[in-house]
Every structure is written in C-alpha cells, then in structure tokens.
Amino acid sequence: MAAFHDYVRGLTDTVPEGYAEPGMRLYRHLVYLGASQTVEAHFPELREQLGEEAWDTLMRAFVRDSQWTSPYLGDLAHDFRTFLARAAEGT
Amino acid sequence: MLGLGYRREMADWDLTALGADFIEVAPENWLRRDRQRLHDWRALGKPVTLHGVSLNLGGTGPIDVAFVRAVGQLMDELDCPLYSDHLAASGDAHQLHDLFPIPFTRDEALRVADRIAQVQDLLGRRMAIENPTWYTNIGPIPEPEFLSAVVERADCHVLLDLNNLAVNFKNHGLITPQDFVARVDPARLRCLHVAGHEFDARFGLHVDTHSAAVEPDTAALAAQLAAQHGLPLLLERDHDIPEPDTLEQELTWLRSMTTCAA
C-alpha cells in the first residue's frame, strides 16, 4: 500500500498498479482539501496573506511530508506549526 | 427510529421539532469538547450513537489504544447503543484523515478483522463497521463477500450505508445496491445510513459528499430494509447544510416511506 499513499501524498505521480488514475487523483484531492480547509480554519488570514500559489505550495508540502498520528483532525493545527518550525530550521 | 447526523451548524436547532428520534455524532469531535448539548439531548430520553472517522481499521499503524478507551468511556457516559467506524484505512502508517480503500483480498480481510477484534476487546463490546465509498481499489473478492469475510471473522456488526452502495454502483457498475443488500446477513445489521452525493466532472466520478438530498431509490431501499428488519435509519448531511425546514421535510419523507414499507 506504500505506492498508493505515496501517490495520495503527492510523492509520486506514478499510479500504483491496478488502481485507476481518476480515483487516485480524487483521493489526493480529498486529502489536500481536508488539510487545506483545516489549516485555514485555524489560521484564517494566512491564505489571504500568502496568496493562492504560495498557499497551494505550502499545503502540498504539508501533506507530502506529513507524519500525522492523532485521530483528532483539530491537531492538524499543531502539526502545521511543527511543520513550519521544521521547514524554517531546514532553510 | 429515525436519526440525524449532528453537525455543529445545528447547535441552535430544535432537533426534536425536526423529527429526529436519535442523533449520531463523531466521537473525534466531542471527546475534547463540552458535551452539555449531548447531555441535554440524552435528558430527553433520546439516544446518541457514535460514528467515528479516524479509527484507521484498514491502516498499518497500530490501533490507538488511548483513543479507543476514550470512545468506550464516552459510550458509557452517554449510554450509547452503537459505535461504528468505516471499513477503510485512514492513512498508511500515519493518519491522512480520509477514508481509503482496503484491497479486496483474503489476507486483508483477515488482517483488518483482527484489528476490529482488537478494538472490540478494548471496548468490551461489539462495534459496527460501515461499508465505505471507494473510488478505485484492487483485489479479486467481490465487495459484499469481502465485507462478510471481515464481519464473520471479527464477529462485529454492520452499519449499512445505502448511499455508498449507490455511489459505488454508479462509479464502478459492479453490483446494484439491491443485489449487495441481498448478500449481507441481516442478523449483522445494526443501523442504516442515507445521504446524497454529487458528480464531480474533474474526476468523472460520483463523490460521497453528503451535500445533497437523498436519492429516491436509495431512500426506498433504506426504508424497505428499516421496516423489514426494524433497523434505525439515519440521515447524514455534512456539507451545504440547508435550513432546518428542508431537513425536516427530508426526515418526514423518510419516515413516510418507512411507514409505507412496514
């Protein structure tokens, strides 16, 4: 299942064997949307401040590198802060 | 028994006037929140059922024992007659907060059933699993047989979502909702879900959005099953939530159909 989730995360654009491309794209879209909407709900001004393109880049990176474990969706806000801190260290 | 999936947008609504006999909530949304609203509802003598979204039964990460214990405590607190989650994965080793397909294979059925059994051991009671919508999947076993294999081995209950059956049939054309229902052991059923869905042209797929009214065929099949087996029927509406009047009309429609089917 690693190939499936690698595609969903956006780590690869290779559709895993046996799966259909539209469905895979939809799963990727749904995960992106969930993350984007949740982060936006916690940081309502950030999206406007960043602009669409930078927001999109940031959300894609957030999903791609995510190591979320909490069953609570609200904890994504905390994970997002951690992600930003880690990214800042890396630059 | 007719229920409504409770959303925070309904915080000021009079749910009794709406015609709901019970409500269903996601434990993930309430475990860390003030639960007075739920206790007020319970004080009316009306049940709350729990329908989770993040148990990750199909994933490879370990079952979150603390979370399951917290769900069990919430069931005790609210005297919940039912806790369900999806026959799906929430991610890989990590949580991705969506519902991903479990390959329809014998090995996966056994693996996931053992995870369900682990959850039930922790809870000290049975749970129900919901047949999910899936947009692409692999594996040789037809979906109803896969569901049955999991349920028999785990010795768990089933929450049958009729809208998911309709969405899957529209997208994949493999099995009609009627034929699917005929292949599920009715003794395992504990609750029925209905909802609406939308076609998304970007993907060429019908998407389980819970953002529209229930389709007549789905409502009719659900009403027939509810009447035949005495099952609670629950309406889910999670997006584009209309005015209370509109949902009241839909609940009245569902109740009328169930009454006619009895």
Short description:
The complex is a heterodimer of chains A (91) and B (262). Chain A has five helices and no strands. With 91 residues, chain A is mainly alpha-helical.
Structural features:
heterodimer; A: 91 residues; mainly alpha; 5 helices; 69% helix; B: 262 residues; alpha/beta; TIM Barrel; 8-stranded parallel β-barrel; two-stranded antiparallel sheet; 10 strands; globular
Can you walk me through this structure?
The complex is a heterodimer of chains A (91) and B (262). Chain A is mainly α. Helix content of chain A is 69%, strand content 0%. Chain A has five helices and no strands. The longest helix of chain A has 22 residues, at 21-42. Chain B has a single domain (2-261), classed as TIM Barrel (Alpha-Beta Barrel), CATH 3.20.20.150. Chain B contains ten helices and ten strands. Chain A binds chain B through residues 1-2, 4-5, 8-9, 17-20, 22-27, 29-31, 34-35, 38, 63, 66-74, 76, and chain B through 28, 31-32, 52, 54-56, 60-61, 64, 67, 89-92, 94-98, 100, 103, 134-138, 200, 202-205, 207.
